[in-house]
Amino acid sequence: MAEDIEEIRRQKLAKLRNKAETGGSEASTPKSPSKPIHIDGGAELSETFAEYGLVLADFYADWCGPCQMLEPIVETIAAETDATVAKIDIDANQQLAAEYGVQGVPTLVLFADGQPAERLVGMQDEAQLRSVIEAHA
C-alpha cells in the first residue's frame, strides 16, 4: 500500500514538473503505470479517474479462485496496454462494489474519462481484455 502511494506521488510530482516546464500548458494524459494500482476507497478511485483517461477496474476478492487466475492476465494488461489497472478488493471496499453494481467476482469495469464504458463479469482471457481496451483507447 505504501509503495502504491509513493508511486502515485512520484507520478503527480512528474506531472507538476512537466506542467511547470511547459509554462502551465497541459501535456497529454500521463502514461499509465506498468503495475496495477490498489484502490482503497472512492477518493482514490476518483483521483485515478482524474489522472488517467482509461481505467480498467478489477473488482476482486482474495478468496475468489477465478480472481486469482485472472491476476497474471490483469498484470500483463497493466504492463502492455494504455489502460491503467485499478484493483479493488470488494471485501475492503463494499460501498464501492455496491456503487458500481458488482454482484459477482471477478467483475471488470472499463472506465473511459471517468465513465463506465464496458463491464465484464467472470474469468476473461487476455485477448478479450485487449480488444475491449483497444476499442476505447
Low-confidence stretches: none
- Kindly state the mean pLDDT as a whole number? 88
- How far apart, in Å, are the first and last alpha carbons? 28 Å
> How many beta-strand runs?
5
Per the principal axes of the C-alpha atoms, what is the gross shape? globular
**Strands of the largest sheet, in order across it?**
1-3-2-4-5
Q: Helices and strands: which structural class?
A: alpha/beta
Radius of gyration: 15 Å
Order of helices and strands: HEHEHEHEEH
- How much helical structure, as a percent, in the residues? 40-55%
Strand residue percentage: 15-25%
Number of helices: 5
| Largest sheet geometry | 5 strands, mixed
Organism: Halosimplex aquaticum
Domain Thioredoxin: 14-137
Region (Disordered): 15-40
Keywords: Disulfide bond, Electron transport, Redox-active center, Transport
What does this structure look like?
This protein has 137 residues and is an alpha/beta fold. Helices cover 46% and strands 21% of the residues. A hairpin with a 2-residue loop joins β4 and β5. The chain is globular and about 45 Å long.
